[in-house]
Amino acid sequence: MSGRTEGGAVKRRRLSLALLLAALCFVSPTPAFAHASDRGHVLLLPTGYYVAGGALAVAASFLVLALLPPDSINRLWRRRLPLFAFGDGARTIVSLISFAGFAILVAAGLFGSRDPLSNPLPLTIWTLLWVGLASLQGLFGNLWSWLNPWYGPWRVISHLFGKRRTWRPPPWLGCWPAVALFFAFAWFELIDPAPDDPARLAWAAGFYWLLSFAAMLVFGYRDWSRRGEFLAVFFAMIARFAVVERNEVERNEDGRLSLCWPGAKLSNAAPLSPSGLAFLLLALSSVSFDGLSKTFFWLGLFGINPLEFPGRTAVIGIGTFGLVLTFVLLAAAFILAIVLGQRLAGSEHSLSQAAGLLVWSIVPIALAYHVAHYLTALLVDGQYAVAALSDPFALGWNLFGTADMQIEAGVVAGAGSAWWLWNLQAGVIIAGHMLAVLVAHGLAWRLHPVPARATLSQFPLTVLMIAYTVFGLWLLATPAAG
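RESULT FIELD:
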């Protein structure tokens, strides 16, 4: 008799799941037409259906997961498709090539064209690295561990002078150096009067390379990459979402690649320290402020006419205040959601442990915002980057045969382009939040083995994610100025 009861319960769960999934399909947004373009242009969209559909999709995903047994998600995340194994023998060579390319780009910034759309340095850093590579990291894993311009030179120095004694930073330092450097990077990108100026960027990039390399010699490459080099910290966090996983073999540098589900590597992540939590929240808040700072709403709060934008120099103070405020508000909202969730579930875990673990659910949202927000820049400026790399010093070279390529800016202009671009951006944001709910549930089950308590603990965090979905879609659609 008990077997029949359990079987009936399973059938009811499956039926409920099917009904909810069907309902989720019906809340998908309807088409809307508008003009979409890169920064500095106005974007007007009737977004009511999109906002409602996105909020309902995230809410429905929470309800679906609340009805599923924890083992079903865990079994899904544990599945792997083995591919092949390879070692790290070529890693030094790849990094040395990357360093040589970086040195050429810095020289091009100092001595090449003054036009940011003709000089390969700003196009490579702001478009190919910060946008393109971040997107690839979220798909293929930690490519930056091979492509960074420090590992190869560090290995050469270590080989020439032997292993040097390094100073181990105190544990309390965490990755606060990376937080500080990432804030400086975000400030330079979003608030500095001329972050695209090739010479200015060349000095900044060259100084950062020297600073990081000196720190690696003092603290060790591995320690500084985990604590201070903010690009390594950021890309490593994003890479945990990737569908490609590389397993290291003990006492051997060979590792096997395997395919996994998106976000599966987040399920077994260790809780982050307070500095790691701050870093991940800063990564999301900085991209959010990048969109907010250009809106008519934000500029109107300070009496600035968005149609007569006075330039970055006039809003440095406002921008700095906004960058800090966005981070503080997001951090406060996240901590409040965790505290309320812990109280609803009657949890005995500490706030630092719960927040440090559940903050990993921010990774899909941060990656989704990164891709959606910078998509138009990647599509247009990526073409300029390909052309500029063929003639880095503006001397009439055509190294890769792309110097004279025609730039197709129309890929983000016109009603047809706007329709598919907007749907893609909105879809990425909604999907990122839905995956974040999935990841958060898996992490909550680690904290609360009882499904009911795990579901209760996630309710406030899900409300926050729904609110952030609405905010993200509003940012894509609200009028903005350059």
